[in-house]
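This part of the workshop introduces the protein records we will be handling. Backbone structure tokens are a discrete shorthand for how the chain folds in space. Once this layout is familiar, the rest of the handout is easier to follow. The record below serves as our worked example for the rest of this section.
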Amino acid sequence: MTVIGKDCVLGYDAIANWASPSLAAVPNAVDVSQPGISKTAIDLPSRGTGGWNPKGAGLKSMDLSFGYLCDAGDDAVLNALRGSYINDTVMQFAVLDGPIAGIAGRVVQGFRFPGIVMEFPIDEQLEDGRRIEIKVEFARHKLAGVLLLPVWMVLTAL
């Protein structure tokens, strides 16, 4: 079964709920992308590699970018995202290939990570809806003395 982008879900929650997340969907997210899931390569040559330059895994990084289509009035999701940007609040984000509740007969999965909103530019094109292009970066955060790292989240429907 092919996963279609419109069926994917971006979820968020307070970082304090990391151990037992109750993710809420970001329904106004558009064009969700994780372009910065990467790791650096480190050189590991030695006299014993016969002139070859073998590589090893270096540091990993993760980010998230998406457009947010603004609604008029009070918007809890937008308030949380703006709060993360203004107050440097770390939140948890999950980029899933299906709904948070899962799908009967199929596993829903994706990365979940602690992140902070680093970019919040507002775009008001004349003929388009008001949109904010959000960029989230992986954030260093400890909860109860434990450093939180990105995880691969797997959900199954009950």
The chain has one domain: 5-155. Residues 76-87 form the longest helix (12 residues).
